[in-house]
Specification:
Strand content of chain A: 5-15%
CATH superfamily of the largest domain in chain A: NADH-ubiquinone oxidoreductase 51kDa subunit
Strand order of the largest sheet of chain A: 8-7-11-9-10
CATH superfamily of the largest domain in chain B: Glutaredoxin
Largest sheet of chain A: 5 strands, mixed
Number of helices of chain B: 7
Number of domains of chain A: 3
Number of strands of chain B: 4
Oligomer: heterodimer
Radius of gyration of chain B: 18 Å
Structural class of chain B: alpha+beta
Structural class of chain A: alpha/beta
Strand content of chain B: 5-15%
Number of helices of chain A: 20
Chain lengths: ~450, ~180
């Protein structure tokens, strides 16, 4: 098994505490950066590593950092996006809960590279117990001289503050997050200007995901080239995968990119196969926003190659036959799962979470939820399926932020790959509806109105 | 309820709020709005009345509307009273796949209320919520700060029993959550 970079010490008793974390080599990246490197040299290592944003978009981190404007006399900020809310994703929570100092260390090293004297960790509000853990780790870091003024005698000053969200998926979008951090509704901003030029308080800002910032620690410790040697092609390094749904061993796994999807699902060391040894039906590979794929397309590409856990391989075939790595939220469905009902939970989610700024998203997600509910109730028609297709097509690409696309893609892919199942709900509702959740689903939906 | 009516928090709470405001740069105190609303809600039996929000506006020296528009945007702020024990059950994909609907139906039956309702004795409020980021330990629910994961009907019954006589509100945070400097 390949070496773990983020979770190497996760099972060490007491690793949550500063003393144990430090005894396992913790804060070495801060020492190395502050004492032996220039900020630009740190950025250079991150560029060389090929690290790509782990929140979902997969944008090269080093490039994002190099876009940061550096006008004289204007503060710069690093903001950690810990608003983990993408359905199927729980890796950042796992990291912060079990090894909080890794994130703190990554924040300090990254802030040094960016020249940020203050950084904020924006944690989703529901994670208040995580905030408690982070606050304790930050207090320990101050006490031991890793935060505050003149860190380790280097002349570099840095403060970290934790900021709670309050229940809004949209705040995971970086400009909505900045609005929220400024005490406003989480309405995404129009880009440009990008946060690298005008971000928090109109100052140059880098927003990075928890896993991305944590990955800076091994990159600085071992060098960018060593990191780039791990993985496959442009998917360098390791990736945390949150595995859930109908598998024997749900959980967070750190894998080297390039592992086959088949091994990930069926290996005893990883997901352990399908729950109750049922047949695999479908997978949502990268969080709710990415296209769902049927078993045959998630295990093999359309050209018959084994599908790999990497940005490129998962995207092979475009949206016609492929998907995206996204956040690494890997939701597995066995043969008993209703694709239509699962889609209903996704669409209800996007309707609930749409900020309401853009009409196509605000209205479209509401319509899609209602139509799916109608189909689930047994009152759907074939033209409803076509209407769903039409609505999602009119949302995609027509909104300020990617939430619109994220709401459209699951609908498009479910119809693309599972249209006969939608038709079965329309043509033979009784058979589809003889399931335990029916009455309950109706209750939930009426409570929603 | 008057738009100008206001209340005072305890001295301890007001001091904590001032401390939180200090985390943000000079002139950017509005940034403290979300944490202050969380603290205000925890201090006010788990919901935000207009006078409570007015006080937060006063403390931050912003218009009351700037508080209302934010409080109504975020799902964790409650603008109506809720039961002492607020049960929030995740209903999104992975939790649904692992039986969240059965959990909700079970709680509804045991408490005699539907999703979104508060029990007649005011003890319990049941809400279904969107993904709480606990998909690998589905199904799950949240009561206050606590996540309860890998739920079974037995675990749910036990939780209902434990919370039946609670007199304190199950808020998301208390005065020890934040580090103060």
């Amino acid at each position: 098994m390949q070496r773990k970079l983020l979770l190497e010490h996760i099972d060490v008793p007491g690793i949550q505490s500063y003393d144990v974390y430090r005894s396992k080599g913790g804060y070495a990246s801060v020492e190395k950066a502050l004492k032996t490197m220039t900020p630009d040299a740190v950025v250079e290592e991150v560029k060389k590593s090929g690290l790509r944003g782990r929140g979902g978009a997969g944008f090269p981190t080093g490039m994002k950092w190099s876009f940061l404007a550096k006008p004289e006399g204007v503060p710069r900020y690093l903001v950690c996006n810990a608003d983990e809310s993408e359905p199927g994703t729980f890796k950042d929570r796992y990291l912060m809960q079990h090894i909080p100092h890794l994130l703190i260390e990554g924040m300090i090293t990254s802030s040094f590279a960016l020249g940020a004297k203050t950084s904020y960790i924006y944690v989703r509000g529901e994670f208040f117990y995580i905030i408690r853990i982070l606050e304790k780790a930050i207090a320990e870091a101050y006490k031991n001289g890793w935060l505050g003024k003149n860190i380790q005698g280097s002349g570099f000053d840095h403060d970290i503050y934790v900021h709670p969200g309050a229940g809004a998926y949209i705040c995971g979008e970086e400009t909505a997050l900045l609005e929220s951090l400024e005490g406003k509704r989480g309405n995404p901003r129009i880009k440009p200007p990008f946060p690298a030029v005008k971000g928090l308080y109109d100052c140059p800002t880098v927003v990075n995901n928890v896993e991305t910032i944590s990955a800076v620690v091994p990159i600085v410790n071992n060098g960018g080239e060593a990191y780039a040697a791990i993985g496959i092609g442009k998917s360098t390094g390791n990736k945390l995968i949150s595995a859930s749904g109908h598998i024997k061993k749900p959980g967070v796994y750190e894998i080297e990119m390039g592992l086959t999807v088949e091994e990930f699902i069926y290996s005893d060391a990883l997901c352990g196969g399908i729950l109750n040894d049922k047949k695999l039906k479908a997978v949502v590979a990268g969080g709710s926003s990415v296209p769902i794929l049927p078993a045959e397309l998630i295990l093999k590409t359309a050209s018959g190659e084994p599908r790999l856990m990497s940005y490129e391989s998962l995207a092979d075939g475009g949206f016609a036959t492929g998907t995206m790595l996204g956040s690494g939220g890997f939701i597995v469905m066995d043969e008993s799962a209703s694709i239509v009902h699962n889609l209903y939970t996704f669409t209800r989610f996007y309707h609930h979470e749409s900020c309401g700024q853009c009409s196509p998203c605000r209205e479209g997600t509401s319509w899609m939820e209602k139509i799916l509910h109608k189909i689930l109730e047994g009152h759907g028609t074939i033209s409803d399926i076509d209407l769903l297709w039409d609505i999602q097509r009119k949302i995609e690409g027509n909104t300020i932020c990617p939430l619109g696309d994220a709401a459209a893609w699951p609908v498009a892919s479910a119809i693309r790959h599972f249209r006969p199942e939608f038709e079965a709900y329309v043509n033979n509702p009784k058979q589809q509806l003889e399931v335990s959740y029916y009455d309950h689903c109706r209750n939930l939906a009426s409570a929603e109105v | 309820m008057s738009e100008t009516e206001t209340i005072k928090f305890s001295a301890e709470t007001e001091a904590l709020m001032q401390n939180i405001i200090g985390r943000y740069p000079e002139g950017r105190h509005k940034s403290a709005l979300l944490p202050l609303l969380h603290i205000a809600q925890a201090d006010s039996n788990g919901w935000l009345s207009v006078p409570v929000m007015n006080r937060v506006a006063e403390i931050l020296n912003i218009k009351p509307i700037e508080v209302y528009e934010v409080a109504s945007f975020y799902s964790m702020f409650h603008l109506e009273p809720v039961g002492n024990c607020l049960i929030e059950v995740c209903r999104t994909s992975s939790c649904w796949l692992r039986g969240a609907n059965d959990i909700v139906a079970h709680i509804e039956k045991r408490l005699g209320i539907k999703d979104g309702e508060t029990s007649a004795d005011g003890k319990f409020t049941l809400r279904t919520v969107e993904c709480l980021g606990s998909c690998g330990t589905a199904p799950m629910l949240q009561i206050g700060e606590q996540y309860h994961e890998n739920l079974t009907m037995e675990k749910v019954d036990q939780l209902l029993e434990e919370n039946r006589n609670t007199t304190k509100h199950s808020t998301y945070l208390d005065h020890t959550t934040f580090r103060t400097v």
